[in-house]
Amino acid sequence: MANNNMVVVVTRQDSGILARFPTNPASSQPRSSGPRTLPPANQRLPNKSPALRARRRRPTTLSALALALAPAAAAAAAMVSAEAGIDRVLWTEAEVAARVGDVAAELEADLRALPEPAVVVGVATGAFLFLADLVRRVDAPLAVDFVRVESYGQGTESSGKPRITADLKVDVAGKHVVVVEDIVDTGNTLSCLIAHLEKKGASSISVCTFLDKPARRKVNVQLVGDGKFYSGFECPDCFVVGYGLDYAELYRNLPYVGVLKPEMYTKDSGN
Ligand SMILES: O=P(O)(O)OC[C@H]1O[C@H](OP(=O)(O)OP(=O)(O)O)[C@H](O)[C@@H]1O
Ligand code: HPA
Prior knowledge:
It comes from Dichanthelium oligosanthes. The protein is an alpha/beta fold.
């Protein structure tokens, strides 16, 4: 919605607000829609006068203003974009969407064959985008719930000891559960969660992961009952971000999957 009093705030992640630019035409540059009138000829500045050149140099738009504050504003502008940290893209938004569609079709066929609705369990936070895109494309009766399992914290190495920090609301006893993950890496998170769901009495457990990184597997993932393993892409042995996947909680909002620039990692993150 248009807001005449909107203020664009350029921030630096480390030091808060760097600059505010009012975007309300009334409060910044007058932009009259009526006929433009020139001052009388004797009050006009000569075409090449220093005053006129200075006035022409005066920034009149937001981007010109940001440029005028360079390099500080340019650096801040780079930091306000999540994309600025990306070294290379592994799967584009279109490739992700196409593959999610394929996986959804496979899952839909299997869920339709079940005698009762399955419970789709998303592993927060990473699976939030994949789960949302996936279930919208599955035309079968199903329930959706979330658990929160954490093992990476602020770094790129698994602690090896996943912690379930938020549990299910739905009762999964006697139900077919489909665990939805953003990535299976060492396999620690999934093994911990499958044991947890089995204890709660799930009759079968499938896993549907957006990415599978088999090169890093430390624990074999054991499905339960007639459970099946669905996977979007096989991920190379590198730390990836985007489409739900984070580094230190950032980059989840990127609509594609990429690899971070090395300088984006802090020294103690394992890279
Ligand atoms: O196979 P693993 O080596 O266990 O890694 C996979 C898990 O790691 C990530 O979770 P993380 O602990 O980073 O929490 P998050 O979902 O909040 O990002 C990811 O979302 C998976 O759940
Ligand atoms: O490559 C990864 N990226 C983000 N989170 C992860 N959790 C396990 N592996 C990864």
